[in-house]
Amino acid sequence: APSPLGQDGLAARPPRGRQHCRISDQETDGKTSAASSNDFSDPIYKEIAITNGYINRMTREELRSKLAEFKLETRGVKDVLKKRLKNYYKKQKLMQKEYINGDSCYDYICVVDFEATCEEGNPPEFVHEIIEFPVVLVNTRTLEIEDTFQQYVKPEINPKLSDFCISLTGITQDIVDKADIFPQVLQNVIDWMRQRELGTKYSYSMLTDGSWDMSKFLNIQCRISRIKYPSFAKKWINIRKSYGNFYKVPRNQTKLTIMLENLGMNYDGRPHSGLDDSKNIARIAIRMLQDGCDLRVNERIHGGQLMTVSSSVPLEGAPAPQMPRYRN
């Protein structure tokens, strides 16, 4: 059968940034959830399903060749390449039909990956305190890292770092001794975010690699520092969940180094540097956006408990950051 990939004006042309965002992460096999108001009996969905079947039968080299023809990224394992090509074709088709709403993703994503005090073997009674607070600002329109923030934090309960912690993170005793305590660093983060008009002029969401940065480290730190949990960090995108759902891979395939490897990328920088980890997580987020993933909030904290956010919940950005009140 002739390839359907060159039909209907889908000739090779480079995609400009991120054209439209609202595409479901569900596979289209005769059914889809791109927008609940669509009439799924439209022949376009049959065309997409037929094309998906065709893509499923392609070899890795055929996939890379077709992606190159469309000026798309050709690195990654075979399943990643299939997903990339399917989403590109689906997006083009739905845009022709004007089925995609172009303004339903966040303007910015703030990637955070804390480093915290630790001891070898992680004894259960050990209290982790944040010692590095990085933020990497990703512009979802230009698909670039636009800015970064990084400050170290002075721990109060265990002010002396273990040798294990120093060798793991590269953060020295001298660095934390000279740093501000957590409430001051949080205030600096909030000032930095407000200067960039996040939550006022621009919509944004927090993004982490796993759920523990917010549900564990930030939650514990706010209790130690006797401040309430900040409202802007109550919901976030757990990129491990997003990656697993989008590329259809098991949970053990969603570690940072494995996600990079499967996307054809190497880790850039020093592992367990909070800022370098955040930059690499941002690179994964950017590649997922390029591949057509609809990155959106999927976790939240409520009453100190970690909870899942359904993908059917209307997209809503985080509030403008404000310094939380001190606990009584």
From TrEMBL:
Q: Does the keyword Nucleotidyltransferase apply?
A: no
What residues does the SAP domain cover? Answer: 55-89
User: What keywords appear on the UniProt entry?
Assistant: Cytoplasm, Exonuclease, Hydrolase, Magnesium, Metal-binding, Nuclease, Nucleus, Phosphoprotein, RNA-binding, RNA-mediated gene silencing, rRNA processing
- Reaction(s) catalyzed by this protein? Exonucleolytic cleavage in the 3'- to 5'-direction to yield nucleoside 5'-phosphates
Q: Check the record and name the InterPro entries matching this protein.
A: 3-5_Exoribonuclease, ERI-1_3'hExo-like, Ribonucl_H, RNaseH-like_sf, RNaseH_sf, SAP_dom, SAP_dom_sf
Q: Which cofactor does it need?
A: Mg(2+)
Q: Cellular location of this protein?
A: Cytoplasm; Nucleus, Nucleolus
Q: Which CDD domains match?
A: ERI-1_3'hExo_like (cd06133)
User: GO biological process annotations for this chain's record?
Assistant: regulatory ncRNA-mediated gene silencing; rRNA processing
The UniProt record lists the keyword Ion transport: no
Q: Where is this region: Disordered?
A: 1-38
Which SMART domains does this UniProt record tie to the protein?
EXOIII (SM00479), SAP (SM00513)
The record's annotation in PROSITE patterns points to: SAP (PS50800)
Q: Name one GO cellular component term.
A: nucleolus
EC number(s) of the enzyme?
Answer: 3.1.13.1
List the protein's name.
3'-5' exoribonuclease 1
Q: Which organism is it from?
A: Ficedula albicollis (Collared flycatcher)
